[in-house]
Structure formats: structure tokens, C-alpha cells
Amino acid sequence: MLKRSYAIFPGLIRSLVATTAVLGAFSAPAAAQTIIGPEAAACAPGARGPAALVRVYGFKDRVGKLRVQLYSDNPDEFLEKGKKLKRIELPMTGTGDMNVCMALPRFGEFSLAVLHDRDMNGKLSVSKDGVGFSGNPKLGLSKPDYEDAMFVARDGVTVVDVILNYRQGLFSVKPLVARRD
């Protein structure tokens, strides 16, 4: 009888391992969230690029919309009106990071500005909205330097993490959550 129970034991372990693997496939980690936006296919597995997968996090709430703007490698055009290369606007998702794919016009240097437009007026309202940049520069009362917000797009899809900053107190603009490194 003892030999027969040992024979069943390896089969039981294989069944438990298989069941765990199947259940694990349905509970993806937070980092594996859906890629969104009209250019999501440019960031799909096997995409050749150039593209940026902009992973935005640190939201104050889920109201309004999200705007991602791309700027060229010219520091004089960074954040200047009418100088953006591309803009994607999306409604807020219910939870988690927002992983926005943006096809890029070429490989090389760029910068990104991200706006959590909470009041949906189409412009930055310092007292209400959240803002972030590629490179995650520390923000003050003026726009960040291009060099601090620049990223380099290489072969394939370049991942760009952007943490949002919100006004806290009279003169402070900073993230509500810790930076991911």
C-alpha cells in the first residue's frame, strides 16, 4: 500500500504545478497592463520601431483625460506653442498605470510632456492638473531644461517612465508617489 501512495504523489505534484501555472496566466502583474492609444500596434511584441512606450504613473485620481506630447531634439522648441511633433489624448483608465504607445518619426533624441488634464480645459491648470516629463526632472516654478527631459529612441520600442507631479502647498510641485528606479 505504501508503494502505491508514493506513485500517486508525483502525479499529484504535476497536477498542482500545472494548475498553478494556468491560474498564474490569468493574474498578470501590474507592469503587464494593456498598451493603449491609437498607435498601440507600434509597441506590440515584435514591433520594429521606432516607438516609445510611455508608462505614466502616480495619478492623483482618475478624472479628466491624459495628454502625451512629443517634441524634437531642438531645445529651443521644447514646450513651445505650435512646436510639438505629435499629441495623443486619451480618456483616463479606471486603475493602474497608463501605458501609451507613440510611434516616433525616427530614431534619436526626443522629449515628452505628459498632462493629466483633470479639469479637461485643454491646458495646464497648475492648481489642479498633473504634469510629468520624460527623464522625470525635478520641477520648480519654471519649465524644466530640455536636457533633463530628453530621452534617446533606439531600435525597437523605447520604454519611457513618466511620474506625474501635482501642486502641493503654495509653491511646491512634486510627485504623490515614490519614483521607480
Shape assignment: globular
Strand content: 25-35%
Give helix and strand order, one letter per element, not per position: HEEEEEEEHEEEE
Helix share bin: 10-25%
Structure explained in plain terms:
It is globular and about 45 Å long. The strands form three sheets. Strands 3, 4, 6, 7 and 8 form a five-stranded antiparallel beta sheet that branches. Strands 1-5-2-9 form a four-stranded mixed beta sheet, with no helix packed on it. The chain is built from two helices and eleven strands. The protein has helices spanning 2-25, 146-149, and strands at residues 35-36, 51-57, 65-71, 86-91, 98-103, 108-117, 130-133, 150-153, 157-163, 165-168, 172-175. It has 181 residues and is of the alpha+beta class. 15% of the residues lie in helices and 34% in strands. Residues 1-31 have low confidence and may be disordered.
